[in-house]
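User: Quick sanity check before I run a bigger batch. Here is a single chain. Can you write out its predicted 3D structure?
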Amino acid sequence: MAATHGALFGSAIVRIILFAGKGGVGKTSVAAATGIKTSQMGHKTVVMSLDVAHSLADIFDLDRDLLDQNKGQPIEINSRLWIQELDIQEEIQRYWGDIHAYLSSLFNTAGLDEVLAEELAILPGMEEISLLLYINQYVRERKFDVILLDCAPTGESLRFISIPTTLEWYMNKIFKVERKFAKYLRPVAKRVTDVPLPGDDYFQAIEDLFNKLKGVDKILVDPTTTTVRLVTNPEKVVLKETRRAFMYFCLYKMSIDAIIMNRMLPGNVQDTYFNDWITRQQHHLEKAKNYFSPVPIFPVNLFGGEVIGYGHLERLADEIYGAKNPLERFFKENPYQFIKENNGYRLKLKLPFVLKKDIDLNKRYDELVIRIGGFKRHILLPRQVAPLNSVTAKLEEEYLNIFFSGGNHGREKG
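Assistant: Done. Predicted structure follows.
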């Protein structure tokens, strides 16, 4: 008998799991298999593809035309399981009309032909924002019990999870000023240039999008609702990428509750050709346990053929989870905490695998900017923390502790 929502989710209404990792490690198969398992438990489940090169329909071996994405709407697999592959052209009509129209006219004015201008007006991030809109809608409407995200390769996945905070920063810091300038400059610009300034419809469309996204950031960083499962393979290069992904997801406050080590060669393989390969895989598995402990690792054996179609995916789900409940939080930890202390506040941020020299911190009035490698995170500080003018930091094992203290001068010190 399926568990009730209260027993399964606690206070959360919906369970969201992101399956992320390097391209080609088997994220789509693992996400689809998990969807089958949760639907068989009696939970209405949707598996959503975040990858531009969608392959969910392919992995289920559905009898559909090569380019048929059902106009980006959910496709029913059975009475409790759906898959969804977004169609950006449909999303433009649904959410991006005025914004896309202005960008198209801007490129067209620059001398590009109309078709090329329309293509260039599809900006990076539009598909990710559309997916966030669906997640927010599904959670608000309680349309599904479980939302499983088949993420794009690591870099694109990190852009996806950074969008809510990036949009919040833009709306708070730039949007109102930009809108006001455009209003005052528009009459003058019409007399001196053919390049169009955005009209108020453009700005209103952005504001409407932002309002529809409100709350999705809290959903994604709430560890009782949302967790990340990193899918990897027992290979040196892949594990390096997985370590980076682990660290960056922590930077964006995401809780990682499991590592799925996919495509392990079974230990009972008799052919001597595979002996060295099996030994190396076991070596990488042990290294992974050291890297990610205490986060659990689920080893998954390599299948003898393609994992495609409902039956193979069902077998894969059993291989991954066995008797475990796939909706369980397998590891519970909050990677991001603000702690009140005697002399101020401390931000405790989990950042494994990072060295002191890799971190650059900068406090700018009411925000903290953390740069690690090629990624930068803007953290809007709580009202009581923002005015504190002394900021120091200490890296202790896998945690970065940032201390805020001093007078309420609203200035940064050192």
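The chain has a mean pLDDT of 86.

User: Great, the batch can go ahead then.
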